[in-house]
Design brief:
The complex is a heterodimer of chains A (196) and B (148).
Chain A lengths: L4 H12 L15 H6 L5 H10 L4 E5 L3 H7 L25 E5 L4 H13 L5 E5 H6 L21 E3 L6 H16 L2 H5 L9
Parallel strand pairs in A: 1-2, 2-3, 3-4
Chain B lengths: L4 H11 L4 E2 L5 E3 L4 H12 L3 E10 L4 E10 L4 E10 L4 E3 L8 H12 L2 E3 L30
Parallel strand pairs in B: 2-5, 6-7
Antiparallel strand pairs in B: 1-2, 3-4, 4-5
The chains are: A alpha/beta (196), B alpha/beta (148).
Chain lengths: 196, 148
């Protein structure tokens, strides 16, 4: 049958196939049956997915904040293990995030930097509580470092004196969003978060 | 066997001619007699435990006062012994040979006040960094704040 193939097929398909297969639909090249099975992405994204859901903290309790940030957060009431982040490492080689809980004195500064340099990339840092963020109430003292960001780059600041365990968990969630590059999550915190 | 601290302090005031006792029953001794007095306290009076050792700064009188709280575990009494040292050249004999517990306490006094204890086994700073300059608990200690 000598017909205009293209035109006929088009009209026929319009009746049979759902509309989203054609026209200016950008998903035309990725039919829904395939998109459920196949993801095209970068290796980085897959690795970050793994990193973001299994953050291993290096417990670094320097003062009273360690009771909230490292103990209370992981106790049954708040239970950081729900998210898969509880595996506290005692050694820097196996940790992803250094949670600096407490006052950083000049004498402690040396080994904070040393442990930070021992941690393997990729690594992140959380400053927990007023002392780790800025020196806190001890900022005018003669041996207190005014914030751990003077020594190492900090990703998440959790304010409070001490922060509640909920706040610490929120800090972890923000760190996860940063690892996954989850801008939608971070935009909720407008004014509190700097997205890179 | 001495029952209470005031009895002991009175007895010490009678026995040693260089001992002063003030109205708070504090024993005040000159710095050059420190070691022999402390040794006598331990050997003859059973004061076997140095509870606390600290220092105070008196810039107007140009002196440091070093304070020893000495206890007897056996008799359950505590007395306070004070001695003064010159502020320009603060040197005292260490009582580490009498009570081992003086080790860290004297390191702390050296760290924060700058009183040098001769004969100390390990005369280093204990709280601050080894290369820290100055002694922060002195009243004329000047320091620029860390706040930006």
């Amino acid at each position: 049958m000598a017909v205009d193939n293209g035109k006929q097929i088009k009209t026929a398909q319009k009746d049979i196939w759902p509309a989203e297969y054609f026209g200016d639909n950008p998903d035309y090249k990725e039919p829904p049956e395939l998109s459920r099975l196949i993801h095209l992405t970068t290796v980085d994204k897959v690795l970050n997915l793994a990193r973001g859901y299994s953050i291993w903290p290096l417990g670094f309790g320097l003062a009273c904040c360690a009771i909230e940030g490292l103990m209370a957060t992981q106790d049954p009431r708040y239970d950081l293990s729900r998210f898969g982040w509880e595996v506290n490492r005692g050694t820097a080689r196996q940790a992803d995030v250094m949670v600096v809980c407490g006052t950083v004195t000049t004498k402690a500064a040396n080994f904070i930097v040393r442990l930070w340099e021992q941690m393997t990339e990729p690594k992140w840092c959380m400053a927990l509580g007023g002392c780790a963020i800025s020196g806190g109430p001890f900022v005018d003292s003669y041996h207190v470092v005014p914030g751990v960001n003077k020594l190492i780059p900090v990703d998440v600041y959790v304010p409070g004196c001490p922060p509640r365990p909920d706040a610490v968990i929120e800090g972890y969630l923000m760190l996860q969003a940063k690892i996954l590059d989850n801008r939608k999550f971070l935009e909720k915190y407008k004014g509190k978060v700097v997205t890179g | 066997m001495i029952e209470d601290a005031t009895t002991l302090v009175d007895e010490l005031g009678k026995k040693f001619d260089y001992v002063e006792v003030n109205e708070q029953s504090t024993v005040i001794i000159p710095a050059d007699k420190l070691l022999e007095f402390m040794q006598a306290l331990k050997d003859d009076y059973g004061m076997d435990f140095l509870t606390n050792e600290t220092a105070a700064d008196y810039p107007e009188e140009n002196k440091f006062e070093v304070v020893y709280n000495v206890s007897s575990i056996e008799n359950g009494i505590t007395i306070m012994v004070k001695t003064s040292v010159d502020r320009d050249n603060p040197e005292l004999p260490s009582v580490f040979s009498v009570w081992g517990g003086a080790n860290w306490q004297e390191r702390e006094i050296y760290d924060l006040m700058g009183v040098v204890f001769t004969g100390h086994p390990n005369p280093k700073r204990i709280l601050l960094d080894y290369d820290y300059e100055g002694h922060p608990l002195r009243k004329d200690f000047q320091w620029k704040g860390g706040r930006e």
